[in-house]
Amino acid sequence: MLPPDTLTLLVLALLAEAAVGYPARVYTWIGHPVTWIGAGIALLDRDLNREAWSAPRRRAAGVAALAILLAVTGLAGLAITAVLAPFGLVGLTIAAVLASTLLAQRSLHEHVAAVSAGLRAGGLEGGRAAVSMIVGRNPRTLDEAGVCRAAIESLAENFSDGIVAPAFWIGAGGLTGGLLYKAANTADSMIGHRTPRHEAFGWAAARFDDLVNLPASRLTALLLVAAAAIHRDASAGEAWRAVRRDARHHRSPNAGWPEAAMAGALGLRLAGPRVYGETRVEDRWMGDGSPEASAADIDRALALYRTACGLLLGLAVALAGVAWLIWR
């Protein structure tokens, strides 16, 4: 697919996902592309990750597993694209509906908004219950400000790897590009952990995910800075300052960019020391505002997120228009 087609596909996919998301009834009926990819990763993990093997051998097996996953996913994407190509606009529309399943604008908003609603309706316990659905840290260690920071951090990070990154790769490579990204990202979430089982086997998945998320994390930060310039209760200048100063200090090479931008825009401090399970992680703070976030700050973050999603759509439309002028 040429850029006019991939970028038009992206515009249609963003619009479709924002309008209807991924209906729960469809998920119950056929699952979701991530669950299908996840089943393949689980199979590779079971068959190729042998505890009796040495660490170098398990690392090599992890490289092979990632290569197999990407090859199968890429071939599936190319096959679907080839089948739909002869049908013109109808085929492009079907491909856009399929690509929309790789985006998470609507579901991310719903999950983060549920934390704000949970705090207001059920107090701290309601907020903890809602935030436990979207973060890996131990909710029992979180006070109300911690619950709110966790929700806002999840919003910022998942805006990057759940929306901007798949959008970037759909725009660059069509449905196949989006599927390849989603396969890499799902592999990282399943096996890219520093645990005894996955320290070596998941090394390739973790490093590859860092690489493919790099352009999107920077773009996400820019979108949040631009969105902050539109909102009267946010600061684009502070967002940009936090990104330049703090993003590189995050333990993740990518997550610090959107988190720092969100922190600076809202006048908050995000990240910092956290507890995952029983393990305390001493992360650097992003932003130099107050760590005392509230449900109202979650609402402000969601407003900023909605504007940034609109800017992403506008950018996709503009790039599609330029591509059509150049290639057609």
From TrEMBL:
Pathway per the UniProt entry: Cofactor biosynthesis; adenosylcobalamin biosynthesis
Pfam families recorded: CobD_Cbib
Record InterPro entries: Cobalamin_biosynth_CobD/CbiB (IPR004485)
GO biological process, one term: cobalamin biosynthetic process
Record carries keyword Membrane: yes
An annotated Gene Ontology molecular function: ABC-type vitamin B12 transporter activity
GO cellular component: plasma membrane
Source organism superkingdom: Bacteria
Main location class: membrane
Keyword Mitochondrion: no
Membrane topology type: Multi-pass membrane protein
Transmembrane segments: 28-48, 60-80, 308-327
Keyword terms: Cell membrane, Cobalamin biosynthesis, Membrane, Transmembrane, Transmembrane helix
Annotated compartments: Cell membrane
Role of this protein: Converts cobyric acid to cobinamide by the addition of aminopropanol on the F carboxylic group.
Family label: Belongs to the CobD/CbiB family.
Name of the featured protein: Cobalamin biosynthesis protein CobD
Originating species: Salinarimonas soli
